[in-house]
Every structure is written in C-alpha cells, then in structure tokens.
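Sequence only, no structure available. Ideas?
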Amino acid sequence: MPTNLRLATFNCENLFNRPKVFEVAESKSQKILKDVAALESELRRDPFDKAKIKSLLVKVKGFAKLNEVRAHLTNKDVKGPADFSGWVELIRGNNTRRRSREHGARDCGSECRRHLPNGNRGSHRTAKIS
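Reply:
I predicted one. Tokens follow.
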C-alpha cells in the first residue's frame, strides 16, 4: 500500500535571528546595504583608502561590523588587502517578535503554534503536524 510522505524544512536561524538591517524601513535598509557593499569593495581595493573605509564604518555603525582577524586597519603597516585579513558582518537583531516565535517553537513539540495578528498576545492557533 503506497504511503504519501510530506516533509517541510525551514531555516530557523533566519526566522529567529535576522540581521538588524532587515528590521528597519526598506528605504533605509537599502541605503545601509549599499554602504556595506561599498565597504566590502573598499576592503578589496589596493591600496586601502583608510579615510573612506572609516567613513563607511561610521555610516553602517549599529548594523554591520568589521571583523579583523589579522592586523587592524589602524596599524600603520597595513597598506592593502595583502596585509589585512577580515570581513564585514551584519549585526543580528533582537526584537520582541523574535522572542515570541522562539517561545512558540520551543514549546511546539509535535504541534505547530502560530501567533495571530489580532493584538491579543496570548492568542494562538494550534495545528497538528501530520
């Protein structure tokens, strides 16, 4: 007797811990993402324009950070990408919607809970996963 099997997966990290830049208005997030792309481009350019890199870091502050593994940009010996090892990383957000989804997922078990957008925080709808 044939049996149908349905399998669904999703990336929990993206649901619960999204970058902060995606929690702001789209016009602002697009501007920030363009600045991040410009910063990444400057970090590949030889020689470094340290003044431009610093101004871009100020623009993306709070939304992205520069991870420096070897030789910091402030070091006078760092002239370009060959002397520097690092990357730009988007900072993760921490909003209240995230906490409520984590709480629902933690208590889920074999059920899937979804909060309804009716303004009543305690309301949720439960559906069996089969």
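Residues 20-90 form one domain.
Hope that gets you unstuck.
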